[in-house]
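Changelog note: in this version the structure field was regenerated for every chain. One regenerated record is shown below for reference.
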Amino acid sequence: MSLAPDEYAPETVYLNTASHGIAPARAFTALRDVQDRWLQGRGSPMVHEHLVPEIRAAFARLLVGAQPDDIAISNTASALIGQVAAALPAGAEVLVAEGEFSSVTMPFLFRGDLVVRTVPLESLATEVRPETALVAVSVVQSSDGRITDTALLRTVTRANDAKLLLDATQAAGWVPLRFADADYWVCASFKWLIGTRSVAFFAAAPEAIEGMLPVGPGWYAAEDRWAELYNPVALPTTTRRFDQTPDFLGVVVALAGLELLDELTVEKINTHNLTLADRFRTAVIDLGYQPLQQSSAIVTVPGAGDAAPRLEQAQILTSARAGGLRFSFHLYNTESDVDRALTALADNR
């Protein structure tokens, strides 16, 4: 049974949250209400700006120890990482993991004047050195579900006076996260947060952003945005200075998803997801495949990437990544989903 049967009735076996999550029914109800009133000329999406403080607070609750003022809202994780990249001095060393998702590495690689050093994920902590200015890595790797030891990395970066940026896009919503474990956090909402592509978050404490200025701030980043529409005066001293104008339709949907996660709790979702994924992983090994042994909600089956179209024909939605077939298990999945996926994989053998 799924964790939220009243919110979901998928017609497929949807095991592709690592690509895009499914928003809950309440999100579509709220979205239709906004669209209907917009169509009727009774208001526009802009009238829902009052939801932005709520969504800041909702994301802060997922990042234990964060406060709403520590959260900026934007549209994409890569643009937020770009804010951190822009603040680095020329020649600074940035340490990244081999096989890291490109949205994490590209803002640093293509700035053109940084030293970007790539090492295996497993060696990341041991490769931090005094000349390292920043380590940037995903909490959970997109391609295969490997999980970063964030506590160890935090200890090592502090010891070397380096900053740490964590991308929680593949983790927030099912992995318990602590704000103190990084200097900078970025997270898109459209995967495990069951939100939309148009909403992303940046989290940082005041000391981490000291001296940092946003690249291309717009009206929404002003200290008093409505009073400064035509006469901008100041940027906030908090992380809110990195705000970009929200997609208010996206905020409506993403907030509904965060509210559901809050109700269910990350701890309960974590147990549910890992139980399904571990069951699947064990059975996949019995079929003769060799997935990574690390417990994760993402299970990639090496060498099975070409089976994705055949599974889709059987109404089993996955994604091919780096030659493997990636399965991801979230709150709307069930034991029946695991069994159907295993049967389809067995038939593929």
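Spot check on this record: The mean pLDDT is 95. The radius of gyration is 21 Å.
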